[in-house]
Amino acid sequence: QVRFVESGGGLVQPGGSLTLSCAASGFTLATYVMNWYRQVPGKGRDLVARISQAGTPTYYADSVKGRFTISRDNAKNTIYLQMNSLKLDDTAVYYCNTDSTWRPSWGQGTRVTVSS
């Protein structure tokens, strides 16, 4: 069964850090460019970061550049998103998926809430 399981979200104060994980199953994640997205209620999913198959190059949305780091462990079929200096605007549900015309169904996402 092809699926993603995102985890690592939670409640954090502004300036705090979290590391998200996205575990893929049912396919070989190493063959795909992978993306992290986020979504707030009433809006579509926005691309946050992208990582190529080998780990570089990477891409970041301007809103997270310098604060977030995307990485991957192909042996574990998992990608990560290290989020530092979190801001209130980072509050969202975070999802991962391939950057491909072949796109598995979305996982349940992991909720990040930044609040004081």
Give the key terms.
6-stranded mixed sheet, 4-stranded antiparallel sheet, single chain, 116 residues
Summarize the structure.
The chain is mainly β.
What do you see in this structure?
The chain has 116 residues and is an all-beta fold. The chain contains no helices and 10 strands. The chain has strands at residues 3-7, 10-12, 18-25, 34-39, 46-51, 58-60, 68-73, 78-83, 92-98, 110-114. The N and C termini lie far apart (39 Å).
Terminal Cα separation, in Å?
39 Å
Helix content: under 10%
The average pLDDT score comes to 97
Strand content: over 45%
Largest sheet: 6 strands, mixed
- Name the overall outline: globular
- One letter per element, helices H and strands E, the order comes to EEEEEEEEEE
**Rg over alpha carbons:** 13 Å
Unreliable residue stretches: none
Secondary structure tally: strands: 10
Estimated structural class: mainly beta
For the biggest β-sheet, the strand order reads 2-10-9-4-5-6
Supply the number of helical segments.
Answer: 0
Write the layout of secondary structure elements.
Layout: E1 3-7, E2 10-12, E3 18-25, E4 34-39, E5 46-51, E6 58-60, E7 68-73, E8 78-83, E9 92-98, E10 110-114
Parallel strand pairs: 2-10
Antiparallel strand pairs: 1-3, 3-8, 4-5, 4-9, 5-6, 7-8, 9-10
